[in-house]
Amino acid sequence: MRTHRIAAIPADGIGKEVIPAGLRVLQALAERSGDFRLDVTEFPWGSDYYRQIGRMMAEDGLETLKGFDAIFFGAVGDQHISDDITLWGLRLRICQGFDQYANIRPTRVLPGLTSPLRAVNPGDIDWVIVRENSEGEYAGHGGRAHRGHPEEVATETAIFTRAGVTRIMRTAFEIAAKRPRKLLTVVTKSNAQKHGMVFWDEIAAEVAAQYPQVTWEKELVDAMAARMVRRPGSIDTVVATNLHADILSDLAGAVAGSLGVAPTANLDPSRRFPSMFEPIHGSAFDIAGLGVANPVATFWTAAMMLEHIGEAPAAERLMAAVERVCADGVLTADLGGTAKTEEVTQAVIAAIRG
Ligand code: GGG
User: Fold this and answer.
1) Are 185 and 217 a contacting pair, CB within 8 Å?
2) Does the active-site annotation cover 246?
3) Structural domain includes residue 107
4) Which of 223, 256, 289 is at the close of a domain?
5) Distance from first CA to last CA of the chain, Å, rounded?
6) Among residues of the chain, what percentage have pLDDT more than 70?
7) What is the CATH number of the domain that holds 139?
8) Is residue 6 part of a domain?
9) Which site in 15, 32, 156, 169 is 20 to 30 Å from 3, CA atoms measured?
């Protein structure tokens, strides 16, 4: 019997609803398989912890997490705490502390779902967005001076390193090379941002030389946003900076039906540290506690985690169950349905067992 140690961090808002649902589904998969078990430890970190202790996670939290095979994460964000405190204090602390530089965001229209785009063939939306997850606009470099004075100034400097850009390009080319279309779109804003973004384009060309089997192209981020809506079928794998990919992947989730179905993996491909798996969506505190959050993004995220820890058959079973439940019309309100989180969870567990 294989044992995988999982750290669960529901954190804030609907994270506290979708992560327990995800853990129940994972448990059902482990029981169905009989070949592996999950040893789950839950951590109470997040905004409530911040209110009590003054920190988003324990001081030695990263040290503690090193002992796990993967991290199953909910969401950060709280009505009463500044977003930069919640994001930097937990999600970014883990991503950057564990050098999870490759953020992988698959998008497709699941059976039974409809894209809000008119006249789109659901099969046209089958993308993987690769987000650089360790530097760029999220380098945290900058400062404030003369606070409260007319001459007040704030700077936020994006930092792009040769090592950082090269490794995310390699990741993106590797992913594109394994997909049927072998097409990679490198997204920048290199017309306006003439240093860092031109650097991205240059490194893309260098790395591309090692992947002659991949067709690649450059696209500006604004044009890419329009193309995702106007010509979704022309897109396959996309690589972009930390900020650009964050924005594009929210758009991607929306055109695939809802952000409530969009999963993500924060990977340390070297496997020196545990990788972290989370739904793309945030804490959605406007619907927290109502039992209406869509758990599908978390289930898909759980499938990505299973794949990562070497349980590919369980990952496939989970995605098949999710697709069956969506096709049967058991959908939450964000997808036009009336099902609650609990109903979707029970339906997926029944499909796993069935
Ligand atoms: N589960 C994803 C999450 O909690 N996101 C919160 C957030 O504010 N993310 C911004 C970002 O990652 O750039």
Assistant:
1) yes
2) yes
3) no
4) 256
5) 22
6) 100
7) 3.40.718.10
8) yes
9) 15
Mean pLDDT of 12-41: 97
Which tokens is 121 given?
Answer: 């063939």
**Whether residue 334 lies in the annotated active site:** no
Residue 263 Cα to ligand 1 middle (Å)? 12
What's the pLDDT at 276? 98
Q: Are 147 and 214 in a shared domain?
A: yes
Q: How far apart are CA 256 and CA 22, in angstroms?
A: 21
Coil, strand or helix at 314: helix
Instruction: Decide if pLDDT at 129 tops 80.
Output: yes
Q: Which residue has the tokens 């930069």?
A: 84
Strands (E), the chain: 2-11, 36-42, 70-75, 102-108, 126-132, 136-145, 153-159, 183-188, 215-220, 237-240, 263-267, 275-279
- Judge whether residue 122 has pLDDT over 80: no
Residue 75 CA: nearest ligand 1 atom is 4
ipTM > 0.90 for the complex: yes
Check if 222 is active-site.
yes
Closest CA to ligand 1's atom 10: 87
Looking at ligand 1, which residue's alpha carbon is closest to its atom 4? 75
| Domain encompassing residue 160 | 115-256
User: Mean pLDDT throughout 173-198?
Assistant: 97
How many Å lie between the centroid of ligand 1 and the Cα of residue 174?
25
Which band of pLDDT confidence, cut at 50, 70 and 90, is reported for residue 289? Answer: very high
Q: How far is the CA of 75 from the centre of ligand 1 (A)?
A: 7
Which of 119-133, 149-163, 270-284 bottoms out in mean pLDDT, i.e. has the lowest? 119-133
Residues near ligand 1 with C-beta < 6 Å?
Answer: 75-77, 87, 91, 246, 278-282
- Number of domains within the chain: 2
How is the chain split among helix, strand and coil, in percent rounded to 5? 45, 25, 35
Confidence of residue 347 (pLDDT cuts 50, 70, 90): very high
pLDDT tops 80 at residue 216: yes
Distance 63 CA to ligand 1 centre (A): 22
| Type of residue at 24 | R
- 39 labelled catalytic: no
Q: Is 201 a catalytic residue?
A: no
